[in-house]
Amino acid sequence: MNYKMSVIPEEETENQSVLILTRKGVPLFKGDSSDNYLCGACDTVMCENVSRGQFINLVFKCSNCGAFNKIRGT
Question: Which among 8, 10, 17, 60 counts the fewest CB atoms within 10 Å?
Answer without folding.
Answer: 17
